[in-house]
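Protocol step 4 of 6: structure prediction from sequence.
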Amino acid sequence: MMLDHERFLELAAASIDFGLSPSEAAELDQHLAGCGSCRQAMQAMREDARTIMSLPVRAMPLDRSEHVLAGALTVRRQNGTLRLALVAAVLALVAVGGLAVGAQIVRNLLDNRLVTLPSPTAPPSPAPSQEPSLRPSAAPETQAPLGWSPGGDLILGRSDHAAALLADGRVLATGGHDASLVATRSTELRDPVTGLWSRGPDMATARELHAEVTLPDGSAMVIGGVGGNGRALASTELYDPVANAWSAGKPLAHARSAFVAVRVPNGNIAVIGGYDSAGAPLVSAELYDWSTDQWSDLHPMTDGRAKFTATLLDDGDVLVAGGLGSGGKSIATAEILDPGETRWTPAGAMNVARRLQTATLLADGRVLVAGGFGTSGTVPIPDTEIYDPAANAWTSVASMATARDVAGAASLPNGNVIVLGGSAAGTRIATTELFDPIQGRWSAGPPLAVARAYFVLVVLGDRRLLLIGGDDDRGDALRSTEILAPPSS
């Protein structure tokens, strides 16, 4: 069944804010499957939503919001048809905390004939007798409960792999190891419309424990890792999503694995720490300038570290914390990189030394660090703490119910943080926990369908979370993926 323009707009706007019930999601998916121009419009507004979401519009006064939102709604001409960049609802959510405001402004703009949409093949349904609401059903629907759903199986099981969201909405999964426990050159691509994975072109070099980042020009780069011979790699490769092909990139100055790569605000890539070819933690860091295609050395860190976390702060600096130090034990130290000055400054010490923990940027600019291995090195910890950049200090907060390491974590649109999966003394975990930064406490979250660790977590363009692969209690690489559509409030 094809939708009229107004219904398509309502469902499209709601999908960005996770307001769709299962029946509405099916309704939108069915329409998109039969309307190619609408799929293009939907992809366009998701891309523009990601751009608008990066703007500094927090705490915007209500009386200014409509003016800003109207300015944010742009119309571009593509393939001879007007393309709607529907970002008003998303920006309204960030600026004033409500989808209803954005939906109303969208309707106002449409009423003023500022935009048009691609025409569906079916005639529009009769107009309702009164002004439509966001959900023009006879009875209000309740939001679907928070829960995981299947995200489509990978072609190959993967663990210790990498993945990234491409500009066109596809997800590129690279390398890792399969059931053979040997690094692979294979890649896969997930279609955002069908949710199905297809085989991508092989990389030139098999690698695991590597990094994958997207560049401002739309390409993706894989960096370093461990090769099929078990040694750290210095090589990089570039994926062109238009040509669907790989090419050799400029190599790192230092071969490394189990490091962290962070894209900083100007699009450059900071590559930090990790293990060298001899298995020693590195103090070195490098910066890739995507505009010149050149690597340069950054100042070294004070402490060599691997299996740590690196978090991009609101001011563009990068916070690194914990990890496995040169003494072979977890460390508590933290440092901050200023990518512009290429220098490091101390960021105090965590209250608990840890490695293989999670670190998540909160809505207020602080950083939540949870779990990992403590100094014992054999038993994970449930301890959590928060770093405050303004005070340059760490504060312990309530512990998780379950100690876990090699878990995943992400911030949700409502400001909470979800920590999921991981391992405890070799046993994979299916439970998840939700942290409320305002209340400072944890609660149980929706369990995963499959207990797993060493997976990859990707935030999709519509803010759903895609969990990819990992391994189970037997160490077998998993093909399954799961998706979480978080609540907005």
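Step 5 (inspection) to follow. Confidence is low (pLDDT under 50) at residues 50-144.
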